[in-house]
Amino acid sequence: EVLNRGPLKDIPGPRLARCTRWYRAYFDVLCDGGFLKHLQGLHARYGPVVQIGPKEVHFSDVAAFHSIYSSRSTFTKDPALYNAFKQDLSSFGFVDPHKAKQRRDLLGPLFSRRATLDLECTIQEKVDKLVSRILSYENGGPCNLFMAFRSATLDIITSYCFAQSFDALDHPNFHHPILSAILSGVTAIWTFKYFPSLYFIADRMPGWLIHRILPVSKGYTDLFAFLSRHIDSIIADPSQLDTADHQTIYHHLLHPNLAKHDVPSRKSLLDESLTLLGAGSETVGNVVTTGVFHVTRDERISRTLRAELDQEWPDVHARMNYQALEKLPYLTAVIKESVRLAHGVVTPIPRVVGPSDAFIAGVHIPAGTVVSSGITFIHENPDIFEDPQKFWPERWLKKDGISNDNFFVPFSKGPRMCLGVNLAWCELYLLFGNTFRKVDFRIHETGLEDFSDFQEHWLPVFRRRQFQAFVKGRG
Ligand code: HEM
């Protein structure tokens, strides 16, 4: 009885979830990011609105999604989750909307479509290197494409943002320690959300002890050291920005054209660098890995895509740029379908309702309630996407098909939508276009279950086999 009182009493949900956040914590932490699967079951049982915590509600329908993440929304990021990323002074981490906007105003010009087109050659250079590294496996064993694509996207984001790179693509078998650290670090999010004091303890432990307990943390130490050195040297001698290969985030953060703004602190520069590296590498790497697997697995899709590419790009040694690739309808459909099925950000993105109460999809929600609506619930909704688990690029080409962008929301919506969306599209076109035009793949010991079975740790985490393939050059 007691549990059914309170401002959210009319919203259905498990009784235990109403009284304690440890209900959800059980699935997040002990079930290794198992809450998303559980949430699907809760919606099947209770309907489109479910109470999932004492002050937390999840919506599964499209109208609610657009209301929560609308461009006019005054809802803010939920610090309970965002503080766990420990990048609180960055574009991604700022909870305060004014600070977030200030930061977006500063960085926006570097991530505009114009800037992406101007810096296309830095992306193309890494894509060329990726293709040549993949083709070095031509007469040998299978190539680990899971790691190869992630190495490429890590090198792209670092050279785009910092005009520096870790050269992860040069590492044997693509197992650069910084990349491995990023991949395993993703799974720490739930532990830090529910046990934030662990950060306090970890900050005070000697490095050697942390590395003993958690060997992969060595990669993180290297990453912090690299970025700290880079930032310190720019702060000490800002004139070196004048001789950089191209504009970087530091040009925009330290030498802005905007008249009124606060110069970010050293900690904020470090947080921003880490944010962009994290937000920009695994996301794109996962889409390319997913897409190349699905296309290769289906002979018909593979043939159709290559026929389009071969016809529009007859000389493999010539360059085909982003703006030309964008015009190819089948390639575009393949990329959209890959983005949809790669799942991107899988954790429903939490927002705090305020400053006043709100009505979301007709439901009264008091200020202070945490609300979310998962992107996967839209992209896997069978009423919108027929046979949603099927990789089927043609769904994007049908005349009466999904022309409406309301149903394609991988980058979220509203004031906090993805800052890197233009860069992401450019990377995706160059990566998909070049690999399929220049390389033939034959899948090695990888199956559908290696992609469909993932754990939810903000991003999808794949614990089964990594995608491998035998490769052959195409003329
Ligand atoms: C396919 C690739 C990508 C997907 C699916 C994706 C998806 C998303 C989503 C859903 C959000 C909203 C998160 C939230 O509300 O907390 C987001 C935010 C963000 N993304 Fe991306 N992203 C991608 C690529 C990139 C790239 C390449 C960058 C590099 C610059 C980037 C930088 C950011 C940043 C800085 C934010 C935080 C924006 C803010 O809070 O105001 N993303 N992304």
Automatic annotation (TrEMBL):
Entry keyword set: Heme, Iron, Metal-binding, Monooxygenase, Oxidoreductase, Signal
Single GO molecular function: oxidoreductase activity, acting on paired donors, with incorporation or reduction of molecular oxygen
Pathway this chain belongs to: Secondary metabolite biosynthesis
Source taxon at top rank: Eukaryota
InterPro entries found in the cross-reference section: Cyt_P450, Cyt_P450_CS, Cyt_P450_E_grp-I, Cyt_P450_sf, Cytochrome_P450_monoxygenase
Cofactor(s) for this UniProt protein: heme
Pfam families to which the protein is assigned, alphabetical: p450 (PF00067)
Coiled coil: none
Binding positions (heme): 418
Family assignment from sequence similarity: Belongs to the cytochrome P450 family.
Protein name (record): Cytochrome P450
Native source species: Roridomyces roridus
